């Protein structure tokens, strides 16, 4: 394979001027060791994920009854007001096929990609990314990634080969990104295309020949990475083209003022504040058709949450705290789960408060909430806790508890993809591969 300089870029002419497109980091840049709505159009269906790390407490989360009459155990109390709009899954597993279970690195990526990771690198395309490719091209942002905890690398969304979509960690920065100077109010009287967007719109077409020449010099791995890179750029161009058109009026779009600056950290009290601010901005971003796909991560897989006044983390407690003989669980670690589930209830409520015709934003969205483990103390990836919230615009039945009885968790992912309009007949690999969505949930 030919070695190329790191500063290599593709150059061409557009409108009489020179344009340059930088390239992603490819293997050939490294040394041998790799060290260096029109009126009347239907309201769009949205999709999102909501992730929390370190699972649940055995005996306090999973319902004991199936169907619509499922019972609400202590850790699910925050969703009780929305029980009819939430489906709880249990008994769905991440299959390993003889591969090791890397703590905090296997359950989340295994569910999202359908691949039990053989290494610590992100192994494949996440199902939320596949959904964004299908429904995220008619909004300003193909998807939005958020982390309420101070960790921009806290993400489970990506295209594989270790490539992850970085997360926004500040509510104020998130607001500026979505509702800053580039925001076009769909209900505004005036509309003028941004000249900067017009200049960027057709950059790719100017470097087509150079791209083909470059591909001839690359190995198989680099060609795959370059294809992923240009797929993303093509999607950006499609979104630029969309921004050159006057937005369709959206009555639910009512942006509020920017939030105040908030210190972002790992204390659960700060994370809860940041999360609620982000959730409100995100809800309005969807109502204003700035995005149709999102990924919210409230904490990270190896949860670094702490509580004000102590440096002992949630993660450390799951390992070191003794199980109380009378209670039957770890009381301080369980308090963190209680806090996380309270925020899940807050997130659902915020989406359900926004009216869109006869429904709410939640009704027109499908949110997949999940963790990376069942019982964090022993890192189990069987019986992965997962929930659906919302009805995907009426495409999904809601308000159930479904026990998968050991089926692969990829059945849930495939169900979500098909429900929101992604063209997927199968998902996963090895024992995780499935062609069987949970059809009883389809309306």
Feature tags:
single chain, 443 residues, alpha/beta, Alkaline Phosphatase, subunit A, seven-stranded mixed sheet, 10 helices, 14% strand, globular
How would you describe what is shown here?
With about 450 residues, the chain is of the alpha/beta class. It has two domains: about 45-190 and about 255-440, 3-Layer(aba) Sandwich (Alkaline Phosphatase, subunit A); about 190-245. It has ten helices and 13 strands. The chain has helices at about 105-115, 125-135, 170-180, 195-200, 210-215, 220-245, 270-285, 315-320, 330-350, 410-420; strands at about 10-15, 15-20, 45-50, 85-95, 145, 160, 165, 295, 355, 360, 365-370, 385-390, 400-410. The strands form four sheets. It has a seven-stranded mixed β-sheet, sandwiched between helices. Strand 6 and strand 7 form a beta hairpin. Helix 7 (about 270-285) packs parallel to helix 9 (about 330-350). It is globular. The chain starts with 8 loop residues before the first strand and ends in a 23-residue tail after the last helix. Residues about 35-40 have low confidence and may be disordered.
DSSP helical segment count:
10
Number-wise, the strands total 13
Q: How many domains?
A: 2
Beta strand %: 5-15%
Distance between the termini: 52 Å
SSE-based structural type: alpha/beta
Average pLDDT, rounded to a whole number, is: 86
CATH superfamily of the largest domain, by name, is Alkaline Phosphatase, subunit A
Order of helices and strands: EEEEHHEEEHHHHHEHHEEEEEH
Poorly predicted tracts of residues: 33-38
CATH fold topology of the largest domain:
Alkaline Phosphatase, subunit A
The CATH architecture classification of the largest domain is: 3-Layer(aba) Sandwich
The percent of residues in helical segments reads 25-40%
Largest sheet: 7 strands, mixed
Q: What is the CATH first-level class name of the largest domain?
A: Alpha Beta
Strand order of the largest sheet: 5-8-3-11-12-4-13
Could you say which overall geometry the principal axes of the C-alpha atoms support? Answer: globular
């Amino acid at each position: 394979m030919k070695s190329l300089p790191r500063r290599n870029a593709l150059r061409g002419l557009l409108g009489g001027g020179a344009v340059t497109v930088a390239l992603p980091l490819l293997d050939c840049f490294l040394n041998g060791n790799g060290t260096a709505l029109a009126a009347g159009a239907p309201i769009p269906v949205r999709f999102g994920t909501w992730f929390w790390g370190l699972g649940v407490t055995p005996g306090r989360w999973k319902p004991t009854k199936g169907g619509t009459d499922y019972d609400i155990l202590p850790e699910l109390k925050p969703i009780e007001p929305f029980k009819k709009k939430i489906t709880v899954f249990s008994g769905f597993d991440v299959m390993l096929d003889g591969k090791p279970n890397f703590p905090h690195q296997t359950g989340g990526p295994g569910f999202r990609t359908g691949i039990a990771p053989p290494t610590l690198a992100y192994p494949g395309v996440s199902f939320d990314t596949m959904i964004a490719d299908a429904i995220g091209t008619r909004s300003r942002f193909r998807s939005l990634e958020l982390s309420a905890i101070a960790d921009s690398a806290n993400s489970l969304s990506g295209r594989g080969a270790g490539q992850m979509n970085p997360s926004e960690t500040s509510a104020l920065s998130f607001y500026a990104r979505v509702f800053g100077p580039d925001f076009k109010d769909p209900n505004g009287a005036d509309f003028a295309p941004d000249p900067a967007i017009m200049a960027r719109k057709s950059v790719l077409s100017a470097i087509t020949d150079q791209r083909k020449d470059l591909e001839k010099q690359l190995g198989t791995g680099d060609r795959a990475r370059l294809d992923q890179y240009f797929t993303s750029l093509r999607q950006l161009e499609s979104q630029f083209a969309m921004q050159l058109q006057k937005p369709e009026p959206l009555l639910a779009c009512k942006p509020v003022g920017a939030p105040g600056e908030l210190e972002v950290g790992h204390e659960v009290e700060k994370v809860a504040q940041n999360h609620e601010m982000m959730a409100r901005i995100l809800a309005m971003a969807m109502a204003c058709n700035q995005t149709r796909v999102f990924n919210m991560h409230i904490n990270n897989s190896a949860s670094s949450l702490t509580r004000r006044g102590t440096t002992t983390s949630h993660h450390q407690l799951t390992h070191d705290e003794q199980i109380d003989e009378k209670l039957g669980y770890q009381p301080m670690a369980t308090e963190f789960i209680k806090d996380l589930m309270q925020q899940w209830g807050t997130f659902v409520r915020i989406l359900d408060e926004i009216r869109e015709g006869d429904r709410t934003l939640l009704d027109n969205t499908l949110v997949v909430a999940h963790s990376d483990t069942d019982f964090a103390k022993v890192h189990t990836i069987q019986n992965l806790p997962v929930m659906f919230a919302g009805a995907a615009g009426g495409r999904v039945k809601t308000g159930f508890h479904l026990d998968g009885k050991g089926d692969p968790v990829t059945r849930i992912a495939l169900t979500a993809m098909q429900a929101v309009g992604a063209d997927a007949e199968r998902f996963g690999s090895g024992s995780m591969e499935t062609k069987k969505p949970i059809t009883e949930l389809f309306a």
